[in-house]
Write a structure and sequence with these properties.
Radius of gyration: 24 Å
Structural class: alpha/beta
Number of helices: 13
Number of strands: 14
Largest sheet: 5 strands, antiparallel
Order of helices and strands: EHEEHEHEEHEHHEHEHEEEHHEHHEH
Strand order of the largest sheet: 4-1-3-2-5
């Protein structure tokens, strides 16, 4: 028998998870074979012979030992299949040229097949969500069919990757309706999820999504690891310095929200493209960040949540945590990046039964059921 004091070790091994001596947590492992590699890595702390075996006294359970009640972590793995559309809407620039668009062609023709194959290999293809612009559905029909055939959920991501503020409300409605039509014809099921291209969303978008019966959106970072109800607050307006100061000195209204539309969080730090893709006409473009730096950052986030957020507190609104991950075929499909993606997904899979891969629709339904 061994007590694994490290969360990392405990997460990889089956057994009873305990809280000991006012805070330290770990897991009791009953079979030597279960300790395995963790012993070799130095994570297991050997337990000496119990005192009652030495003295003959009747054993008792220490009052300081409590069974830990951990919230499971749902990995929200997703891919934004922007392809060429990424250069047409939010990525539109007068200097875009054939070389830029060719990255979009790589996304569809090369990146998608590579990722679909990888997800099938890892057994997560049916437990994830692809956000597909209408333009990609129509431009790359064979690759889109590969995604559908893999069993993944298909959700919407604009038509030409349009930002909400680039369109009138009427144009936005036409785009959403067209994308619903395309996805329904493609999958035989009306889509229930939306991610705003480049996360560019506005208040009227939420009203439209709710009106059209969407179950969830995933465009905001108001939380980093729990779903929440989509906000339905008045627009936030900056100060008008041509008016008296009293006109802008008031709090922002934040407490109004939908009772139908779930928001599943996302953020710039849990996606691949921002640090690992180079965009020639974007001022803050990177593209040359070491994949291992990104891999370690994602691991650091997961481990911190594992060690600090799994215990439900008064501020917790869900019985589970989410760990969102946003990939792109033109980024994660590249030969020097996809290996890191495989390593990291395997690392997540190794944490045991408390960690599961689930579609965004499944996560939204779980949140609604618990609310």
């Amino acid at each position: 028998m061994a007590f694994l004091a490290s969360h990392k070790a405990a997460g990889h091994i089956s057994g009873e998870c305990l809280s000991v001596d006012g805070g330290m947590e770990g897991r009791i492992v009953w079979k030597e074979s279960e300790v395995g590699a963790d012993l070799a890595e130095g994570y297991a702390m050997p337990v000496s012979a119990p005192a009652h075996e030495q003295t003959g006294a009747v054993p008792s359970i220490p009052a300081t030992i409590q069974v830990s009640r951990r919230r499971p972590i749902k990995v929200a793995l997703s891919v934004d299949f922007d392809a060429i559309s990424g250069w047409l809407g939010t990525g539109s620039h007068p200097n875009n040229n054939m070389a830029d668009y060719s990255a979009g062609i790589f996304s569809g023709a090369i990146g998608v097949p590579r990722l679909v194959k990888l997800f099938k290999k890892l057994g997560v293809g049916e437990k994830m969500t692809w956000f597909i612009p209408g333009h990609s559905m129509e431009t790359f029909p064979l690759e889109t069919k590969m995604i559908v055939d893999s069993g993944s959920e298909v959700a919407l991501h604009g038509y030409s990757h349009e930002g909400a503020m680039q369109m009138t409300e009427e144009q936005e409605r036409d785009v959403v309706l067209r994308c619903i039509e395309l996805a329904t014809k493609l999958t035989g099921k009306r889509p229930v999820g939306w991610r705003a291209p480049l996360y560019q969303i506005r208040e009227s978008t939420y009203a439209l999504l709710e009106e059209l019966g969407f179950e969830y959106d995933t465009s905001l970072c108001s939380h980093d690891s729990e779903p929440f109800w989509a906000p339905m607050n008045p627009p936030i307006t900056p100060p008008d310095f041509s008016k008296p100061a009293s006109s802008w000195m008031h709090p922002t209204i934040t407490g109004q929200h939908s009772s139908k539309l779930v928001e599943i969080p996302c953020n710039w730090y849990m996606e691949d493209a921002t640090p690992m893709s180079y965009y020639p006409h974007v001022e803050n473009s990177h593209g040359y960040v070491d994949t291992r730096q990104i891999e370690q950052m994602w691991k650091d986030r997961f481990i911190w949540l594992w060690e600090n957020e799994q215990e439900k507190s008064e501020l917790s609104k869900t019985d589970f945590l989410v760990f969102p991950l946003v990939l792109h075929p033109d980024t994660s499909g590249m030969a020097h990046i996809i290996g890191m993606i495989e390593r990291f997904l395997n690392w997540l899979r190794s944490w045991g039964e408390d960690v599961s891969f689930e579609t965004y629709e499944t996560i939204a339904n779980a949140f609604k059921k618990a609310s």
